Structures are given as C-alpha cells and as structure tokens.
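Researcher: Next sequence.
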Amino acid sequence: MENQQNFMQLFQHSLADEDVRVKVATLRALTQFLTCFEDEAQVMKYKGMMGQLIDLVILVLQTNEDEGKASLQSLIELT
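Model: Next structure:
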C-alpha cells in the first residue's frame, strides 16, 4: 500500500492524543481499517501498534467498563 506510512502516522498521532475518547475512536477506526485487508502481510505491517492498543484497552476497562469491553471486542475482531 502506497500510503501505509501516512496511515500509520495518522493512527499513531491519534493514539497519542490526551483525550481517551479520541484514542478509543482511533482504536475502532484502526481495527475496521485492518479488517479490510485480505492479505495478512498487510495487516502485520501494523503489528508494532498492538502494544499501544492493548494498553489502551486496559486503561479504558479501568475507567469505563462498557467502553473497555467494546474496545476489546474491536481487537478480537482482528483475529
């Protein structure tokens, strides 16, 4: 994908936002984006972001259980 680096930067920038709602929206957008790929190699190019996503899910679970469960479900859909 030609714009892979641009997408990665956009997602990383949004995940670094101070507002948890922006982070959660980014997580959902990223997981939906990645489910569009049929080629697993394309998805794996974003594997470096998974640690951030898992940390975000943990943070959200601690502050808002329902939102945290929805975020976790988004990650599960990638498998």
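Model: The mean pLDDT is 91. DSSP finds five helices and no strands in the chain.
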